[in-house]
Specification:
The chain starts with 6 loop residues before the first strand and ends with a helix. Helix content is about 35%, strand content about 20%. It folds into two domains: about 130 residues, D-Maltodextrin-Binding Protein, domain 2; about 100 residues, 3-Layer(aba) Sandwich (D-Maltodextrin-Binding Protein, domain 2).
């Protein structure tokens, strides 16, 4: 359903502990957009079904995952740009998945987990599903009926509690989990998947992309030290849509 009023969201790293920082970030973006004579919502939309939101003709700004962008959204939305979270061992704007296991699991290589129990947040996730299936293909294996958990946090918790053996967790998400969830002490990173383009910002086909991009860049530059550290955002990167298509 289309909205008559503009909508925006930042759903991909929406931890409760980050809600206030995200709200301040959005207010700065909104005010920069308003300064250019473009309407933008007062506040971010929370919850709801993401695909209908991402394809809303009134979408001013949101963040999606690389896999649904490449598979479902390319040509239906505009790619605004990709935030850089400064992920270690990745080019700017790129990220990877942390392959996590229990800290007391004595297996040493990913190949040792070829027939293990895997937790997956969603089959629509680049970091939690697609990167994992490719990693398994590289060792001559495949993903056997994983436990679908609904979120990276649930996947990591399933491993920490011993209900599953392995999960691939978005590296940015895992940084946040290590900050805010004490049970991550029961986990360790076995390895990382190869870098892929990070989670891009998008807007509708009718939205003023350049105005929005400039507003986001200005707002990142103006983040307080505390909010920059909380959100982990370092800047914006222009990654071509063709790089996202390569994840398919």
């Amino acid at each position: 359903m289309e909205h008559s009023s503009p909508v925006a969201s930042l759903p991909m790293y929406d931890f409760p502990e980050l809600r206030e920082a995200h709200d301040r970030f959005w207010v700065a973006i909104r005010d920069n957009i308003h300064a250019e004579g473009v309407n933008a919502p007062d506040s971010l939309s929370l919850g709801g079904e993401t695909m209908s939101h991402w394809t809303d003709a009134a979408l001013i700004l949101s963040q999606t995952c690389g896999l649904p962008y490449a598979r479902d959204l390319h040509g239906k939305v505009q790619l605004v740009g990709t935030p850089d979270y400064g992920v270690e061992s990745c080019p700017p704007g790129y990220y990877h998945s942390a392959i996590v296991i229990r800290a007391d699991d004595e297996r040493e290589t990913f190949a040792d987990f070829a027939s293990a129990r895997f937790a997956v947040n969603s089959t629509g996730s680049q970091s939690g599903y697609k990167a994992l299936t490719k990693a398994l293909e590289n060792i001559g294996s495949s993903l056997r009926i994983p436990q679908i958990t609904g979120s990276h946090e649930n996947s990591a918790l399933a491993v920490a509690e011993g209900r599953e053996d392995v999960a691939a967790i978005d590296a940015v998400t895992f940084q946040h989990l290590c900050r805010y969830r004490s049970w991550t002490e029961k986990l360790r990173i076995l390895t990382h998947t190869p870098p892929t383009p990070g989670l891009p910002y998008i807007c509708s086909l009718d939205a003023p992309r350049t105005t929005i991009l400039n507003a986001v860049r200005q707002s990142i530059d103006a983040l307080s030290i505390d909010d920059r550290e909380a959100l982990l955002i370092r800047g914006m990167v222009d990654i071509p849509a063709s790089r996202y298509a390569a994840v398919l």
